[in-house]
Specification:
The chain is α+β, with helices and mostly antiparallel strands. The chain is 19% helix and 47% strand. A hairpin with a 4-residue loop joins strand 9 and strand 10.
Length: 202
């Protein structure tokens, strides 16, 4: 093979590479620089606390959090939020979808800031939900509650929450968490962790 043949081969390869970059450049750039976000359960036992009720008294309660982690800290997820995209009730016959008439969004911690979106570079917690002593259900902690929201976990019920993370030019895979409650509230966290069970589903 003489030099001219080598030059022709190199030229052909270069042209092919340039063609690939021209066609798939944005896709390649997105793959390299896009965030990579996952959601994990923080503490399955929950955090024991007190919460005000409607008549200015306080009830014992457990709050449960998830951790949203950006595995590529240099690729900041701008205007990031977490949405419950689907809720299913687990029955003997399988999963039964619960209608969500409008999109519902989970609160970032601390919820006092009322942040709808954040710029996520590393990790941040979200308020997954809570249950109060004397209450009749586990309730996901949402930015706002639509009318006729049916996504509460009542006694002897298991719901599966499908969560997805969105940001500018980014959409994560779907992460599923199941919540089961046997109807019993206990101030002992170890016992309560057996009464209300949250785990990653699937």
């Amino acid at each position: 093979m003489d030099n001219s043949d080598k030059i022709n081969i190199i030229t052909a390869i270069s042209n092919s590479v340039l063609a690939v970059v021209a066609i798939f450049g944005e896709t390649i750039k997105s793959w390299i620089y896009s965030p990579s976000i996952e959601i994990f359960l923080n503490n399955p036992c929950g955090d024991f606390t007190t919460m005000a009720n409607k008549i200015d008294r306080f009830n014992s309660a457990y709050c449960y959090h998830l951790i949203v982690i950006n595995k590529k800290p240099k690729s900041v997820a701008n205007n990031c939020y977490v949405q419950i995209v689907q809720i299913d009730k687990l029955t003997e016959k399988g999963r039964k979808s619960i209608d969500l008439n409008v999109p519902v969004y989970i609160r970032w911690v601390p919820n006092e800031l009322r942040e709808f979106t954040i710029n996520l570079s590393h990790e941040r917690q979200i308020d997954f939900g809570y249950i109060k002593q004397g209450g009749n259900a586990f309730t996901p902690w949402l930015q706002t509650y639509p009318n006729n929201f049916k996504g509460h976990v009542e006694s002897e019920t298991t719901l599966i929450y499908s969560l997805q993370v969105f940001a500018d030019s980014y959409k994560s895979e779907i992460f599923e968490f199941s919540v089961y409650w046997n109807g019993v509230f206990d101030e002992n966290p170890e016992l309560m962790s057996k009464n209300l069970v949250i785990k990653k589903y699937g």
